[in-house]
Amino acid sequence: MNVLVTGGAGFIGSHACVSLLEAGHNIVIADNFCNSSPEVLEHIKTITGRTFSHYNCDLLDYEELAEIFEKHEIDAVIHFAGLKSVPESTRIPLTYYHNNLTGTLHLLQIMEKKKVNRLVFSSSATVYGTSNQVPYEESMPTSATNPYGWTKVMIEQMLNDYTVANSDAAITCLRYFNPIGAHKSGLIGDNPNGIPNNLMPYVCQTAVGKLPFIRVFGTDFNTKDGTGVRDYLHVLDLAEGHVKALEHLEKKKGFTVYNLGTGQGTSVLELLDTFERVNNIPLKRELHDRRPGDIAESYANVDRAVKEIGWETRYSLEDMCRDSWNFIRTNTDKQAN
After folding, report:
1. Which pLDDT score, from 0 to 100, does residue 336 have?
2. How much is the average pLDDT of 191-204?
3. Does the structure show a pLDDT above 80 at 174?
4. Smallest Cα–Cα separation from 21: which of 78, 94, 106, 67?
5. Does residue 277 carry a pLDDT above 50?
6. What residues are labeled active site?
7. pLDDT tens digits for 141-160?
8. What is the extent of the structural domain holding 55?
9. d(CA 242, CA 122)
10. Is pLDDT above 80 for 210?
11. CA 141/CA 143 separation, integer angstroms
12. Residue 256 buriedness (CB in 10 A; 0-12 / 13-18 / 19+)
């Protein structure tokens, strides 16, 4: 299958590209590198021994995106491209709505014109909002607490409406929980520009000495140790979920949603303790009050993904912590030489 991967140089996108290539598919990558590096493309080639076409393309540029479809026979699309920082989205909401919604609209318009009917969309567990009870199930109502989350809710609605109007369309939304880890090679992983918004990159940058300590927000939640509980999954498991979802679209039309997580909750302190234990590195911590909008628990019911697309996680929390540290340590060493 010839697959266009938007945002294919990003953290999750790059790992999905590796899984696609290793599964025998051909890929074309479109990325504007606003939060990724072109070096990642060479690392994907090194890992897989495969070559592919890639374009420095912003989905807001309709003509540029359309040209990719003209140059290649695209069978399906996996859509990762989008701005993704929750705090930033609250500061510049119009930028987030314009970028994430307009970019997706352009993609759908071109797909419709070129009769490309299969799409896997990178959604998020943030669409479950704050009113649903864990474990989250795909049938629950959606909402959001920030502009980034609302873009995911709105795009899911957009995709659902599109499949209703186009009987040949086959679209799957994958609601990620908390992906961490990195490729075993240490060549690709999560290394965001600036101060990280997510816990594991923050942990790794503290471990390597780039940041002085880890801020733990909230120690009085109604959880096992008072800290927030999240569903962490290895990015390699998540990447495999995209391949399974994509191949399932050959058999299933319409609009489908799947949770991708482990189905188990891990607290912040459990994650920090595991990281220290498997990597033999002490982590300095600073305790803070809860942030506005933080919820106590978020974890998935993954029965639908297991049953319908045959996807299950393989990697443990120890693997996630070990592989995350291996990536940051390896790449920090390279930067220092």
Report:
1. 38
2. 84
3. yes
4. 78
5. yes
6. 148
7. 999 999 999 999 999 999 99
8. 2-180+232-262
9. 9
10. yes
11. 7
12. buried
69: phi then psi, degrees, rounded to nearest 5: -65, -30
Adjacency order of strands within the sheet including 254-260: 53-56, 26-31, 2-6, 76-79, 118-124, 170-176, 254-260
* Other residues' Cβ atoms within 10 Å of the Cβ of residue 332: 16
pLDDT of the residue at 333: 58
| Tokens at 222, concatenated | 């109604």
Task: Specify if 63 maps to a domain.
Answer: yes
Does some domain include residue 274?
Answer: no
- With b for 16 or more beta-carbon neighbours within 10 A and e for fewer, the 221-232 pattern comes to bebeebbbbbbb
Reference 154, options 85, 100, 95, 76; nearest CA is 100
Residue-wise pLDDT for 304-332, tens only, equals 999 999 999 999 999 999 999 999 998 87
Q: Classify residue 251: in a domain, yes or no.
A: yes
Beta strands 266-267 and 229-230, pairing class: antiparallel
| Lookup result for tokens 């009085």 | 220
The answer to whether position 317 is within a domain reads: no
Contact (CB, 8 A) for 106 and 60: yes
Cα of 245 vs its chain's centroid, Å: 14
- The CATH number of residue 75's host domain is 3.40.50.720
Identify whether 179 is preceded by a cis peptide bond (ω within 30 of 0).
no
Q: How far is the C-alpha of 115 from the C-alpha of 109, rounded, in Å?
A: 10
- Beta-ladder partners of 170: 118, 254
- What is the radius of gyration, based on Cα positions, of the chain? 19
Q: How confident is the model at residue 335 (pLDDT cuts 50, 70, 90)?
A: very low
Number of independent structural domains in the chain = 1
Contact 1, 26 (CB under 8 A): yes
Higher pLDDT residue, 193 or 305? 305
